[in-house]
Amino acid sequence: WPWFLLPALVSPMMVGLRMDFSMLLEPLGFVKVLEGLLAIFAFATCGGFQGETALLVSCKGVVNKTITAAFAYPFRLNTVVFSAPDPKGCGGTWTDVYLMGNFSSSAQFFVTLAALVFLYCITALVVYIGYYHMYQENNKFPLTDLTISVLTAFLWLVSTFVWAKALADIKVSTGASIIPGIESCKAPGTTCRFLSVTSMGVLNVSVVFGLVNMILWAGNAWLVYKDTNLHNQWSRISESP
């Protein structure tokens, strides 16, 4: 029976449909395409990261053994453990060694915002391409678009700075400074040296994408204000005695 209801639900939406793909070349439509693409890049560069940090360990019965700890998004480092130097655990002196810190909230905030922004861009493009005449005639649509643009610019600002701070802490928690905090490395006859950590240049790029998104959405808010009736109405109000 739902198939009989489908035409009744779809037909009201199709009544006002006027497809106009030239809107993709207009500032409002073109900026939305850019925002959607940059949201994907921000999502991918942060959410797709995988890396590892490595130490060189010498202990009882083990000489220069490389041990690694693999970490990835959402960067719950406190659940990441180094591989043991040998099955005997350096003669019983080696215990499980975990990285420090849980940065999942900052990373997930950033990635979730990127995903939601992409979905909104798709929705806005559908409105611009198919219902732009209704968008211009009804002030509620531009006002909603303007409010969302301002809010999104603010959220990009907050999430980017929060993620940038978390990224700086991730670099510390996976770098050479972890050696003094490893109790197993303080055992008699045991030495640990920092070997390497995966480059986090991609994560640095994600922060840049976040800042670019923030600037783009702030500019989008100005475009929505200038290219709709909101600007004209405000001008008439300011000019009236």
Automatic annotation (TrEMBL):
Location in or out of the cell: Membrane
Transmembrane regions listed in the UniProt entry: 109-131, 143-164, 203-225
Record carries keyword Transmembrane helix: yes
Coiled coil feature spans: none
Membrane topology: Multi-pass membrane protein
MARVEL domain mapped to chain residues: 23-229
InterPro entries xref list: Marvel, Synaptophysin/porin
Keyword field: Glycoprotein, Membrane, Transmembrane, Transmembrane helix
Similarity comment text for this entry: Belongs to the synaptophysin/synaptobrevin family.
Protein name: SYPL1 protein
Organism: Aegithalos caudatus
